[in-house]
Inverse folding.
């Protein structure tokens, strides 16, 4: 039986141990690089509550179709349709304008040729040295995966709570009992300007600091391309 009540309680060490061996590749070496996405390429389709779709963005789908492994940290929220009243799920990138690809040294040009990709982020160590793509450590990607997983679990818990509250409310109406809508307490993620809109309800300050630090690194690299 699952011993934790929510994602906030799961230690990172246990999360990584549980995922050990997942997604093994033929090559043991993973080299992750940051990609600057073209405007609008990270937009994900909205999904009505109950729909079973992946919700991938254009750039994710195009990169996967070309055989590249891609990771776009993201989070989901629920919004109610302003006219019809049903719930809609929306997915947003944690880093607006950026995502990561796992590629080899000969794939740079192929990645940049994919529709939806603007550039691979590069850096220069010395003056007049040829800029080289900036490789992100595997530890950085693992930490970002954990944060994305943590946010997804919190979203699923909040959605299940909201659905159960609505079922109870409908049952009360069916029985003719009064329903005080203002008394309903749906715990939903509160979003701020941090890291492209990442939830301020993120469990630890270290996770929030890590997102901010990574976003600053991406921004600094992107500024050198301009």
């Amino acid at each position: 039986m699952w011993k934790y009540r929510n994602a906030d309680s799961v230690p990172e060490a246990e999360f990584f141990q549980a995922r050990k061996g997942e997604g093994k590749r033929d090559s043991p070496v993973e080299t992750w690089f940051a990609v600057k996405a073209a405007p609008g390429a990270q937009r994900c389709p909205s999904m009505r509550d109950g729909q079973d779709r992946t919700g991938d963005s254009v750039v994710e789908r195009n990169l996967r179709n070309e055989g590249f492994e891609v990771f776009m940290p993201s989070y989901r929220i629920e919004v109610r349709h302003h006219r019809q009243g049903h719930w809609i799920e929306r997915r947003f990138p944690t880093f607006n304008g950026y995502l990561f690809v796992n590629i080899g040294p000969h794939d740079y040009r192929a990645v940049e040729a994919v529709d939806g990709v603007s550039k691979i982020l590069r850096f220069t160590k010395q003056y007049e040295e040829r800029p080289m793509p900036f490789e992100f450590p595997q530890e950085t990607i693992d930490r970002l995966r954990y944060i994305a997983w943590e946010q997804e679990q919190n979203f699923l818990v909040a959605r299940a709570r909201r659905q159960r509250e609505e079922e109870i409310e409908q049952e009360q109406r069916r029985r003719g009992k009064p329903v005080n809508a203002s008394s309903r307490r749906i715990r939903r993620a509160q979003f701020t300007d941090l890291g492209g809109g990442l939830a301020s309800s993120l469990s630890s300050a270290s996770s929030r600091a890590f997102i901010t630090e990574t976003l600053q690194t991406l921004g600094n690299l992107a500024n050198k391309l301009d």
